[in-house]
Design brief:
This protein is α/β, with parallel strands linked by helices. It is built from 14 helices and 24 strands. Helices cover about 30% and strands about 25% of the residues. The structure holds 1,4-dihydronicotinamide adenine dinucleotide.
């Protein structure tokens, strides 16, 4: 018999599970977190953080390469990849120990091991029993496998392997032009790898506003990437000088060769060894099925984040974690609300969006009208001083009420800028609300305000009005 009964047991210590644990502890609960690997999960150890640390090194390299343009002389510039990866690891290790410290400081018991659900109130963790009034499953996801022959060959890797590479591959074929594929494409193309992206759909990065996805495709091609769309990969085989990836286009069969093949075709909920079937937990294909309150069909058992197969983003997992814990501990009975979920893609340049894309605005069931306001980064003083003028801000608002429906940004710090738009949409703000808010000058957020002005009566720093004539020269 277990000696202690916990109020909450959480399985998985990623951004869903560890946030849930800290929140539960804040609410006065006795909490145990079971993790078989390092706390921080995929995001901290194999995903968001290492990839962003790698991207940052690449940005420093790209900036240094342009030193001359900024009046800075550089010479002997080269990428020291082992050092780049060592810095990445330092960042990861620092954050992982930060999370460990937070858990310890919050009096969360962290148990190392693999948990299996023995009953709705009991976990078996490597032979030990853990009793808890409520259980939260936060086991995340793993790279998806697709039934394509040859994906087990040496040199075929997933994102888990790429964040541990010890050298820069000369060439890489990326199967899947989704978020993971394009983030790595940006990194490796910038440091000299010949990158080919093979994407099944007609356009890369499916959830991104189509206009931005199209523009990014052009930019990526200018950066030297080869992007093949409408191409379904049929097989990978060993060939002279590396691996050959065969794919089908509507025009017929094609192939391309590279030293390394990265498979980035999505992620699947991870439930291996949890014993969910034995307990009769309802599944939604591979995902744990939950209601809006994050409850499974078994009373007292909740699931959050990627394992629910809903929105596979670290920040959604953390949000879920807070909601599930508050519901489980009876603080309130809250339903999840995913109306405002910013998406951030750390490509070069960055892409971020929140709310409806233009296509989604067009397909609104009530067919209400909308109007788009655009503002190019090249017209921003701050972007000019940064020397980062590629990109645009696109604001979509209701034609009548002016309520903001969606904001999409491509350009420097797009992933930070999107926060203003997320808050505005959450507060049901209108284009006027943003336009009437004084934005500091010279800053990048001014571009959001300018795009809302463009939606209303015209931006100040672009000549968009048909009646506008050039002002007096200054
Ligand atoms: P994804 O679903 O974003 O993209 C996978 C892509 O692969 C799709 O465009 C799909 O059409 C394509 N594809 C599938 N099968 C194919 C085939 N046989 N041949 C060619 N193309 C094929 O998945 P991804 O990029 O692996 O990311 C997984 C999850 O991780 C996503 O849910 C994503 O949101 C999340 N993620 C988010 C990040 C961020 O927010 N910055 C960063 C990394 C991952």
């Amino acid at each position: 018999m277990p000696e202690t009964e916990y109020d909450v047991a959480i399985v998985g210590g990623g951004p869903g599970g560890y946030v849930a644990a800290i929140r539960a502890s804040q609410l006065g609960a006795k909490v145990v977190l079971v993790e078989k690997d390092k706390v921080g999960g995929t995001c901290l150890n194999r995903g968001c953080i290492p990839v962003k640390a790698m991207t940052r090194s690449v940005e420093v390299y790209l900036d240094a390469k342009r030193g001359e343009e900024f009046g800075i002389k550089t010479s002997g510039l080269e990428v020291d990849f082992p050092k780049l990866m060592a810095r990445k690891q330092q960042v990861v290790d620092r954050l992982v120990s930060g999370v460990e410290g937070l858990l310890q400081g919050s009096n969360v018991t962290v148990m190392r091991g693999s948990a299996k659900l023995a009953s709705p109130r009991r976990l078996a963790v490597d032979g030990k029993e853990v009793a808890a009034k409520k259980i939260i499953l936060a086991t995340g996801s793993v790279p998806s496998r697709v039934p394509v022959p040859g994906l087990d060959l040496p040199g075929v890797v997933t994102s888990d392997d790429v964040v541990q590479l010890d050298r820069v591959p000369k060439s890489m074929v990326i199967i899947g032009g989704g978020v993971i594929g394009m983030e790595f494409a940006s990194i490796f193309a910038a440091i000299g790898t010949k990158v080919t992206v093979v994407e099944m759909l007609p356009l890369i990065m499916p959830p991104v506003d189509e206009e931005l996805a199209r523009r990014f495709t052009q930019i990526a091609r200018r950066q030297g990437m080869s992007i093949v769309t409408g191409a379904k990969v049929t097989g990978v085989r060993q060939a002279e000088g590396g691996l050959e990836v065969a794919y089908e286009l509507s025009s017929g069969a094609q192939s391309t060769r590279a030293e390394m093949v990265l498979v980035a075709v999505g992620r699947s909920p991870y439930t291996e060894g949890l014993g969910l079937a034995d307990l009769g937990i309802t599944m939604n294909r591979r995902a744990v099925a939950v209601n809006d309150h994050l409850q499974t069909n078994i009373d007292g058992v909740y699931a959050i984040g990627d394992v629910t197969g809903r929105i596979m983003l670290a920040h959604v997992a953390s949000y879920d974690g807070e909601v599930a814990v508050e519901n489980a501990l009876g603080k309130h009975d809250k339903a999840t609300d995913y109306k405002v979920v910013p998406s951030v893609i750390f490509t070069i340049p960055e892409i971020a969006g929140v709310g409806l894309t233009e296509k989604q605005a067009r397909d609104r069931p009530d067919k209400s009208g909308f109007k788009v306001g655009r503002f190019p980064l090249s017209a921003s003083g701050r972007a000019q001083t940064l020397g980062e003028t590629t990109g645009l801000v696109k604001v979509i608002a209701d034609a009548e009420t002016k309520e903001l429906l969606g904001v999409h940004i491509m350009g420097p710090r797009a992933c930070d800028l999107i926060a203003e738009a997320a808050l505005a949409i959450k507060l049901e703000a209108t284009a006027q609300d943003i336009a009437e808010t004084i934005h500091a000058h010279p800053t990048l957020p001014e571009t959001i305000r300018e795009a809302t002005l463009e939606h209303l009566e015209g931006a100040i720093h672009v000549l968009s009005r048909p009646w506008a004539t050039p002002g007096p020269s200054m």
